[in-house]
């Protein structure tokens, strides 16, 4: 098996859709087709500051990572935020999630980012085992507030 990690391409749309729906299903979440279309368009728009990487295994997409840069009042350069990470259940446990995370180091380095960061659900034990192997758990607690 030959796997590569590369930026998402416009020709990836149908395979990306399958992974995206798998990701949403994992989190038991539904998005409108309009939001999915908007997300896709943002990922392929070179002028929009959202980027996608994929894992391609023998011509088939088996993983994705969606990232964007965040500005900081504490540093000159932006940080890289990993918003979505998903690997197809058919190939989980083969190191593709870890490879995607490690590939983000180069994306961050190219922009002079000081760190890559992400969040996950507190009960996502499988992902947290991976995350514990490649990063430090932050001592910060996240709060959110819905805006009406």
From TrEMBL:
List, alphabetically, the InterPro entries matched: Acyl_CoA_acyltransferase, Bact_Acetyltransf, GNAT_dom
Give the keywords, sorted.
Acyltransferase, Transferase
In the record, which residues are listed under signal peptide? none
Entry annotated with the keyword ATP-binding:
no
| Keyword DNA-binding listed | no
One short Pfam name that applies is: Acetyltransf_1
- Coiled-coil region: none
Residues annotated as domain N-acetyltransferase: 3-148
GO terms for MF: acyltransferase activity, transferring groups other than amino-acyl groups
Record-given protein name: Unannotated protein
> Lineage from the top down?
unclassified sequences, metagenomes, ecological metagenomes
């Amino acid at each position: 098996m030959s796997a590569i990690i590369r930026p998402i391409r416009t020709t990836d749309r149908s395979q990306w859709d399958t992974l995206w729906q798998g990701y949403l299903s994992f989190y038991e979440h539904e998005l409108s087709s309009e939001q999915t279309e908007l997300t896709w368009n943002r990922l392929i728009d070179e002028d929009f500051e959202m980027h996608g990487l994929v894992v391609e295994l023998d011509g088939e997409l088996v993983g994705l990572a969606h990232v964007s840069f965040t500005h900081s009042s504490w540093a000159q350069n932006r940080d890289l935020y990993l918003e979505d990470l998903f690997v197809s259940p058919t190939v989980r446990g083969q190191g593709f999630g870890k490879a995607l995370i490690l590939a983000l180091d180069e994306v961050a380095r190219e922009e002079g980012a000081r760190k890559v960061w992400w969040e996950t659900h507190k009960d996502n034990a499988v992902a947290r085992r991976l995350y514990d192997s490649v990063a430090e758990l932050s001592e910060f607690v996240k709060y959110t507030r819905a805006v009406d």
